[in-house]
Amino acid sequence: MDFLETLIEKKLDAFPIGAWVPYYNDQLSPEWLQKLRGCGINFVPTNSVDPKELELLRAAGLKCLASDERVIYANVKTIRDISHWLPEYIDREEVLGTFVWDEPSPLMMRICGAINAEIQRVAPHTFGFINLHPTYSDQNEQRDGLTYEEYLEYFVQTASPRLICFDHYPFLKGKITEDYFINLQAIRDCCNRHGLEFWSFLQTCSFCENVTPTPAQVRWHAYTNIAYGAKGLFYFTYATVTHDHSSVFGPAMVDAEGNPTERYYIAQSIDGYIQSIGKTLLHLRHRGVMFFNFAQKSTQEGFAGLRAVTGGAALVGCFEDDRSARYVFLVNLSQTDRAQYELCFESGRRQTVALEAGEGRLLRVEV
């Protein structure tokens, strides 16, 4: 077992499902956390490392990424002090890791790497969490002139990551981002090169040019990530964002009053299914993807003897376990229509699977 797999098994014993902006300070209460936990979310970033906040999370059965402003904004003069701050909270049972930075440019990655290295020196049983830009980030302004592949490589080489996490929000006004699957493949390739796994953010609300996703789109976003081998998901956002007026956020998984929206209930359904297969997913090795009836390049052919999928546009993630048993994760790529698929194998065997729009399902392949 690698570091991340061991940590997740010890701390969560479940597939990691998190939520950005889980609450504001005036919303934090046992009742709020009970509702959040009831959606299937099992870890959150904190607002602070106040013992009262951490204790509320522990009592609710939630793990957390501890947000310590002294660590996040550490610099060359204060990095040594991390060894004094971390013992205040790092060994608490609810602490999964420590938040380091969101979307650093390459120029910021060296300080991120120094913070991360110090965290992992002082507390080798944990990790520093850093989230990366998507492919549609500005190459000059946000990636300091690097291509996206160079940006990922630079991150791995300088920031000492124990996982890769990124956000790509594909649901725009009047269109879908054209580079969504390119982004997933770039992340997958980087993970394969360096023996890492990835987590991914999922869009649940409107902001800027991004529209409120439909239930089918939330499923599509979650399950396409799973098909590429994501080992953790992070909803963006749970609480409705009220502090950022420039981006004009719409209602998220709960509205400003804390009432569940449609996205709460669809996430609850997704989370329930993912946890039903979660321990299997966490131990599977990703072997590539196949597209059928969809204009996107496959990275695998004929996996487990699968030769064709008919009935609609489909994505198939290919996996193996430690005993070489083979699995496929089938996703309906339509964001509007239910599909009845037939999987055709070279042995002549056929299997029929019905999926709602955007839905995915894990299948063990009998050979």
How would you sum up this structure, described in words?
- With 367 residues, the chain is an alpha/beta fold.
- It folds into 2 domains: 3-282, Glycosidases (TIM Barrel, Alpha-Beta Barrel); 285-364, no CATH class.
- It contains 10 helices and 17 strands.
- Helix 3 (51-59) links the parallel strand 2 (43-45) and strand 3 (63-66).
- Helix 6 (106-122) runs parallel beside helix 7, helix 7 (148-159) runs parallel beside helix 8 (180-194) and helix 9 runs parallel beside helix 10.
- The chain is globular and about 65 Å long.
User: Low-confidence parts lasting 5 or more residues at pLDDT below 50?
Assistant: none
CATH architecture annotation name of the largest domain: Alpha-Beta Barrel
Largest sheet: 8 strands, parallel
> Can you write the helix and strand succession as a string?
HEHEHEHHEHEHEEEHEHEHEEEEEEE
The largest beta-sheet arranges its strands as 1-10-9-6-5-4-3-2
Approximately what portion of the residues adopt beta-strand conformation? 15-25%
Q: Count the strands?
A: 17
- Count of helical stretches: 10
- Mean model confidence by pLDDT: 96
Percent range of helical residues: 25-40%
Shape: globular
The CATH superfamily of the largest domain appears as Glycosidases
Number of domains: 2
- Output the structural class: alpha/beta
CATH topology of the largest domain: TIM Barrel
In whole angstroms, how far apart are the ends? 27 Å
Rg to the nearest angstrom? 20 Å
**Under the CATH scheme, which class of the largest domain?**
Alpha Beta
